[in-house]
């Protein structure tokens, strides 16, 4: 479906920085993604898990200066900093909250606006281009993030507004939902293992990098387990916009069968991503909040799950 071009501030996320000589080595043992995959022209999604494989955070990570930057839901920053610092004591790494140092924008069908800023961004997902301290990242087809040092924020916003209408964060999240990219928020912290939000299908899990916190559980689920819950895309006609973590129900089950991951309004109702029990998804009789709540309807994701491809990285 056609989506008008726009830009919007990404006000829901903050930036955690890990800098220093050991930044990459330190994070390699903490995150699901392969830090060695990062380059000046490549970013990736990733997550940080508990020992039991439950995601404490999910993020987009990229190289910058003498370390890396991780963009994640703002409410997760403080807890992740506090916990990571415990493990970084004997590492030449410094962890800080750099949220106030960056202004970040989401752009839809806005490559011409990026070019006007000197950023010729490749079409491949996870591609990165840089100029004059500006960073652009391709996050999915036709969608990009623009990272701007705060001192340039007002000027860049004015220049973007000369090319594009400014939209709400809802419109950006709607594009994320249609791209099938799940995310951890404060309400869903430690609820899901990475495969439950299809993180391995969008490049956020490496099965060849070696050990990291929670790796044994994540790898076992990929190679030996049978995943009973995973990410689905759904729509509903009307109602209140559900918060992350809102329970989903099926009349044929005695308890909740899943949880909302992220939701946004569209022209015809509400679209959302949710982690659901496979049998309930197959049955298709799904309701929000209660067994007799607002009915939900299944919709397609833009990718298929293929374990052979997902484990090559």
Automatic annotation (TrEMBL):
InterPro entries: GcvT/YgfZ_C, YgfZ/GCV_T_CS, YgfZ/GcvT
Binding site for substrate: 145
Protein's GO biological process: iron-sulfur cluster assembly
Coiled coil: none
Source species of the chain: Pseudomonas lutea
Protein name: Aminomethyltransferase
